[in-house]
Amino acid sequence: MDNRLVFLTALLVTLSWMSVGTYAGPTTAAATTTAAATTTAAATTTAAATTTAAATTTAAATTTAAATTTAAATTAAATEAPPIMPNTNVTTLMTAINRTDCGDEQLCAAAPSDCDPSTSSSCFFLAAKQIDGRNFEFGLSGESDGYIAATLSLDSELGGNDTTYVCANNGSGVLFFGALLDNGMLTVKELEVGSVKGKIDGNKIQCTFSATVPRALPTRTKQFALGIFKGAYNSTDGTLGSPIVLLKSGLLDLTNAIATVTNVLTSPTTSPTTTSHAITIQKSLTQALLITVGVLVLTVL
Ligand SMILES: *[C@@H]1O[C@H](CO)[C@@H](O)[C@H](O)[C@H]1NC(C)=O
Ligand SMILES: *[C@@H]1O[C@H](CO)[C@@H](O)[C@H](O)[C@H]1NC(C)=O
Ligand SMILES: *[C@@H]1O[C@H](CO)[C@@H](O)[C@H](O)[C@H]1NC(C)=O
Ligand SMILES: *[C@@H]1O[C@H](CO)[C@@H](O)[C@H](O)[C@H]1NC(C)=O
Ligand SMILES: *[C@@H]1O[C@H](CO)[C@@H](O)[C@H](O)[C@H]1NC(C)=O
Predict the structure, then answer these.
(1) CA distances (Å), 47 to each of 43, 61, 208, 273, in order?
(2) 261/108 Cα distance (integer angstroms)
(3) Which ligand 1 atom sits nearest the alpha carbon of residue 86?
(4) CA 247 to centroid of ligand 5, rounded, Å
(5) pLDDT of residue 98
(6) Which residue ranges make up each domain of the chain?
């Protein structure tokens, strides 16, 4: 009796050890995974710490920048460039609107992104170049039988009476309108715009103009969201049809020529995968179950 019990116990202990041995591979792997996870967690913590530090630095920088901007604004208030005198008479544009100065002297937005309005047959394009303070030189190009338009929004929504510059095809020439965009409709309004040049080539409309852009919060560097539209124009009664949006940007700094303008209308969405986590948990559960059964068997004996 005693001998049999001793033998049985020995056999079970051996079996338990063997089972642990059999699963030594996954156990080691799991250990490695855990170690890796720990390392990642540590790395994340470090990254978070760094981010916090960076955020602090940025905050400090922003404060300094804001202070500088305020100072600059105060100085500028006294010496600010005079606004553009409204004059929407159009002269002929002799050059072709193109990408040459993009990312260097002028900020460019385009749909499709990076298309060249001087060569492409389908390219909606806006270029902005700071002249002095709130005075900018704009270039607008696109294909439409009616009009093309560019909107400057002081928030990330296009609408709510946002300043809009419209270049329309009136038969053979370009007509310019200042307008406010609200609730998907354009209402013509005189804006601080001058030096308008334009040309029509088939359905391609190109125009350049100088404009004094709306005054934004001086403490904010990313002040405007851009929109490019097209729509119908009735040359008989001069009405502008509802605008169709072709490009919408996030808030950006209009004076930063090197900025890349992303069209948020077509930006893809991505979601992270969780597969590896599930596998790790499954392995751990199997091992825990085996060890528990082994301990239980030993306890019963
Ligand atoms: C615009 O053109 C018209 C006709 O050519 C002219 O009478 C008018 O003075 C011009 N407006 C400005 C502001 O130059
Ligand atoms: C390209 O655009 C620039 C202004 O950005 C203009 O000065 C130049 O003449 C244009 N080139 C052509 C070939 O039209
Ligand atoms: C836009 O302007 C019009 C006319 O001034 C006004 O009636 C309307 O309420 C304004 N819309 C917004 C969103 O401010
Ligand atoms: C638009 O063009 C037509 C001729 O095609 C002309 O009669 C009309 O005066 C033009 N409208 C304006 C506002 O220039
Ligand atoms: C343009 O406007 C006139 C006058 O309101 C109207 O009779 C005509 O049908 C309109 N044309 C188009 C293409 O909508």
Answers:
(1) 6, 20, 46, 21
(2) 7
(3) 13
(4) 28
(5) 96
(6) 90-252, 271-301
In three-state secondary structure terms, 117 is coil
Q: Is the CB of 236 under 6 A from ligand 4?
A: no
Q: Does the 90-252 domain belong in CATH 2.60.40?
A: yes
Q: Is the pLDDT of residue 300 over 80?
A: no
The conformational region for residue 300 under phi > 0 = left, psi -120 to 50 = alpha, else beta, is alpha
pLDDT digits (tens, 9 = 90+) for 24-62: 333 333 333 333 333 333 333 333 333 333 333 333 433
Between 45 and 111, name the one with better pLDDT. 111
182 pocket-lining for ligand 3 (C-beta < 6 Å): yes
**Rounded to the nearest whole angstrom, what is the distance from the C-alpha of residue 197 to the centroid of ligand 1?**
14
What does the pLDDT read at residue 222? 87
- Crossing angle of helices 275-300 and 24-79, in 10° steps, is 140
Per the CB < 8 A criterion, the answer to whether 158 and 225 are in contact is yes
In 3D space, the residue among 155, 154, 127, 91 whose CA is nearest the CA of residue 211 turns out to be 127
Out of 202-211, 255-264, 266-275, the most confident range is 202-211
